[in-house]
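Attaching the record inline, Q. Sequence:
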Amino acid sequence: ELDNRGAPAIGKMEFGLRGAGYALCIIESGGDHSCVADEYSPIPGEMREIAAHFGKGYLRAVDKAEFIRAIPQLRTSAGDRAVLRALHFFDENRRAHDEAAALEEGRMDDFLALVNASGRSSHMYLQNVFPSGSSRHQAVGVALAMCGELLGERGAYRVHGGGFAGTVQA
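Structure, as predicted:
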């Protein structure tokens, strides 16, 4: 949703995880941010490149169905990673709305499933879990794997913040 200026609408939601029987943990992965500064900047650039294909300044102004139809051209012009990241963007905007609705309606299982779907999308489509080409240093990936081992199906976890070397939310 957009506010009256056309910017994304941001609101505050009152919800207590503790009252629902959960705790929010932010886990430091131990990754080194000094090695990933160049990983962040391509993300908005790739989103703007996809939006520009449609004559728009921002991807939020592009219709997802139009985007889907244009994927063959976009793969050639912007590349596969940009297409995957745009898919994440479209679906993540929908998921954020659905997450808020699930919390407001007390559907905790649905909320947790959406958080996990968001995390999978970040990993597969946004590709912000480890630096490009890094086979030795994947601290966020290891932290996510350990969350999966410890939580199983009992909660949710995902990369937190910008990703690449930082924290995990569980």
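Residues 80-104 form the longest helix (25 residues). Helices lie at 37-40, 42-53, 64-77, 80-104, 108-126, 139-151.

More tomorrow.
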